[in-house]
């Protein structure tokens, strides 16, 4: 039972930590000329790469951080890696959904990434999958966001670009 609790705790901490890393990396993309070049192109196109390509980039960019906890213990390592991968999958999905069908982001009162793009908010709403860190660090900027453009034909949560 203790092993299960340690693994579950490690999963939860990794999931939350990954959301924090995502927030700060996105903020950094808006400040760094070199690192932000690809991101500026993303803003110009205003489209996601597809869920699987986004997931690949998230995992590739954080693989070392996923492996380090194995040095502590296999249970902590598995919990941590599972939490990080779960967040990468959730964030990849959330990112693509906000580009294609933002009204389906039922877990947030306002889809922050959609608003970030739609209203060219270079200094606000950096979250992709969650809005927690924008609220904590004071970068959350609410707007009336539902317009004819934001409402899509009735599609399911799964009808979006996967690759």
Overall geometric form: globular
| Count of distinct structural domains | 1
Unreliably modeled segments: none
The total of helices stands at 6
**Which radius of gyration do the C-alpha atoms yield?**
16 Å
Name the helicity range: 55-70%
Given the helix and strand composition, which structural class is it? mainly alpha
State the distance separating the first and last CA atoms: 39 Å
Beta content comes to: under 5%
Largest sheet entry: none
- Quantity of strands, as a count: 0
Average residue-wise pLDDT: 91
Compressed to H and E, one letter per element, the order equals HHHHHH
Question: In words, what does this structure look like?
Answer:
The longest helix is centred in the N-terminal third of the chain and has 28 residues, at 2-29. The mean pLDDT is 91. By secondary structure, the protein is mainly alpha-helical. Helix content is 57%, strand content 0%. The chain has helices at 2-29, 37-45, 51-67, 74-100, 112-118, 132-136. The radius of gyration is 16 Å and the shape is globular. The protein has one domain.
